Amino acid sequence: MSQFFQIHPENPQKRLIQRAVDMLQDGAVIVYPTDSSYALGCTMNNKQAMERILRIRQVDSSHHLTLVCRDLSEISIYARVDNQAYRFLRSHTPGPFTFLLKATKEVPKRTQNPKRKSIGIRVPDHPITLELLETLGEPMLSSTMILPGETMPMVDAEEIRDVLQQQVDLVIDGGHCGFEPTTVIDMIDGTPQIKRQGMGEVEL
Length: 204
Prior knowledge:
Elements: E1 3-6, H1 14-25, E2 30-33, E3 38-43, H2 47-57, E4 66-68, H3 72-78, H4 83-91, E5 97-102, E6 118-122, H5 127-136, E7 140-144, H6 157-164, E8 170-173, E9 183-186, E10 193-196
Parallel strand pairs: 1-8, 2-8, 4-6, 5-9
Antiparallel strand pairs: 2-3, 3-7, 4-7, 5-6, 9-10
Helix pairs in contact: 1-5
């Protein structure tokens, strides 16, 4: 049975944020709000938690998971970013975008796309997410809260708890946070290409 925290979307309660982070560090899979939709998250070094997220989504290891980062400087630790890519990222972060980039050695191999050696990278613009990341002190491994067979994310935290209460450890209710996934931009080969049009608007 998953736990259920109601956290204020603009002024997150630090006590509940700390409890959520303690759960993450103990191996939890959580559902949390972002600036585009709800998402699944765990620590990036926990293999079992990562595998649980893949099972919930019913995707295989070729699916791009995302490292949700605090800011632009943290991106450069986990992804290879040249000057041109840096300028593009700077103009689109924080926001509802996921960037596919070549991973650095700091990214566990099991979290990377096995063929392209790449990872999704994202800097969200949501107080709850940013407080979680700041308290955790590292990126979260994440995937949009889309159930198998669906094309759009789940939007209601109580419904998410009802459906996934046996599969996740915590659902954070941050109220309505959007119903579209992020826009996914492939930058692996240097030239930005939109792979999925979502909430974020961008001109290439």
